[in-house]
Write a structure and sequence with these properties.
The chain is about 10% helix and about 40% strand. It is mainly beta.
C-alpha cells in the first residue's frame, strides 16, 4: 500500500473501551499535498485489532496484530509472537542518543489490500540496517505460525521478502521534529 507513498506518519489516540483513533497521513511521491486515512481500531485478542475506516472508508475494514516491539533503551524485544529477542541497540547521534524504537505488525488480506507486514520506527530515517536485518531474520523464523485468531499467517516467508523501506524526506511542512 505504501510503495508509491512517502513521509507516512501514524498517530494513535486512546479512546474509551481501549479503542484507538488511528490517523495515517502521507504524501504521494510527486506531491506536496498531505493526504490521510482515518479509522478506529477495536481490540480483539491480546495484540490484535479490527480497523474500520471512518467517513467514506467506513465500508473498509482490516484485521491486524502486533507481532512485536522494542527499543527505547531496552535491548530485549517485547514480542508476543516473535519471542524474546536480543534486537539492536540505541543509535548514537551528535545530540546524544536517538532511540531505535520499533513495532512490527501483520495485517490480513482484505478486498483492497494483500496481506503484509509493516515495520515501524519512531526515527524519521527508519531503523539501522543491523536492527532491520535482525527483525527480518526473526520474522523469517516464524513461517507457518498462527496469528492471534488461530489462523495461519499466509506465507509469512514471502511477506518478509516483500518488506521495503518507505521513502522519508523533508517535504512535510506540517511536521516538527
Amino acid at each position: 500500500m505504501w510503495k508509491n507513498k512517502r513521509n507516512v506518519r501514524i498517530a494513535y489516540t486512546r479512546l474509551p473501551g481501549n479503542k484507538l483513533d488511528d490517523l495515517v497521513t502521507y504524501q504521494n511521491m510527486e506531491s506536496t499535498e498531505v493526504k490521510s486515512v482515518h479509522g478506529i481500531d477495536t481490540p480483539k485478542k491480546d495484540g490484535a485489532y479490527l480497523w474500520r475506516g471512518k467517513g467514506v472508508l467506513k465500508v473498509a475494514s482490516s484485521k491486524w496484530e502486533v507481532l512485536g516491539w522494542g527499543g527505547g533503551g531496552s535491548h530485549v524485544a517485547q514480542t508476543p509472537t516473535l519471542g524474546n529477542l536480543q534486537i539492536g541497540d540505541n543509535a548514537h547521534t551528535e545530540d546524544g542518543i536517538e532511540s531505535e524504537q520499533w513495532v512490527v505488525t501483520y495485517f490480513a488480506k482484505t478486498r483492497f489490500t494483500p496481506a503484509g507486514i509493516d515495520v515501524y520506527s519512531r526515527k524519521r530515517t527508519g531503523l539501522s540496517p543491523e536492527t532491520l536485518e535482525m527483525l527480518m531474520q526473526a520474522l523469517a523464523g516464524l513461517d507457518g505460525r498462527e496469528s492471534r485468531d488461530a489462523k495461519p499467517i499466509d506465507d509469512l516467508g514471502r511477506l518478509v521478502d516483500q518488506i521495503f523501506q518507505v521513502r522519508s524526506d523533508d517535504a512535510r511542512a506540517d511536521l516538527v521534529e
